[in-house]
Amino acid sequence: MNEPATIRKVMLVDDDDDVRLVAQIALRDVGGWTTIALASGRAAVALAPSERPDVILLDVMMPDLDGPTALRQLRLDPRSADIPVVFMTAKARPDDGARAGELGIAGVIGKPFDPMTLPDEVRALVGRWHASTAAPRRAAAAQLEAVVAGFAARLPLRVAELEA
Predict the structure, then answer these.
(1) Measured between alpha carbons, how far is 38 from 36 in angstroms, rounded to an integer?
(2) How far, in Å, CA of 46 to CA of 8, rounded?
(3) pTM of this prediction?
């Protein structure tokens, strides 16, 4: 079983005022999380890098910038590339959860959702996301550490060459 994810701040992005209100109340009052509620994908792409939420709940179908396009833009910015994203959609399919990894998301929550269980669903999806991305992050960190160590080991020789 996955450890519960630590979530303090959630970015909720949905163009439907009612969905946004219900989800915000559930995330804040049931989940106990700070919630940034936005009505557009463009706003999410603009604010996520500086706000650094612990998770982004992203509506799939929005008029200004749909969820998949917003996701691609979030992944291109190094400041938001590692934030777990959960798609929220009224058109959820049974295989969406299994395809989450290939889509580059933490999971999918269907609408309508149960406001009383929404925080637990988000927590579980984010927990699985962190568990599945931990090994690649550790491998990348080890590779970076080796490069830095090699550079540091060669630095005195380089300095001596420059001084000569």
Answers:
(1) 6
(2) 20
(3) 0.76
| C-beta contacts of 90-97 below 8 A and 24+ residues apart | 90/61, 91/60, 91/61
Reference 92, options 74, 76, 77, 111; nearest CA is 111
Sheet architecture: strand order including 34-38: 34-38, 9-13, 55-59, 85-89, 107-110
* DSSP assignment of the chain: -PPPPP--EEEEE-S-HHHHHHHHHIIIIIT--EEEEES-HHHHHHHHHHH--SEEEEES--SSS-HHHHHHHHHHSTTTTTS-EEEEETT--TTHHHHHHHHTSSEEEESS--TTTHHHHHHHHHHHHHHHHHHHHHHHHHHHHHHHHHHHHHHHHHHHHHH-
pLDDT band at 147 (very low <50, low <70, confident <90, very high): low
The Cα–Cα gap between 71 and 87 comes to 9
pLDDT in tens, 56-103: 999 999 998 999 999 999 999 999 999 999 999 887 655 555 556 667
The single residue listed with the structure tokens 């999380």 is: 33
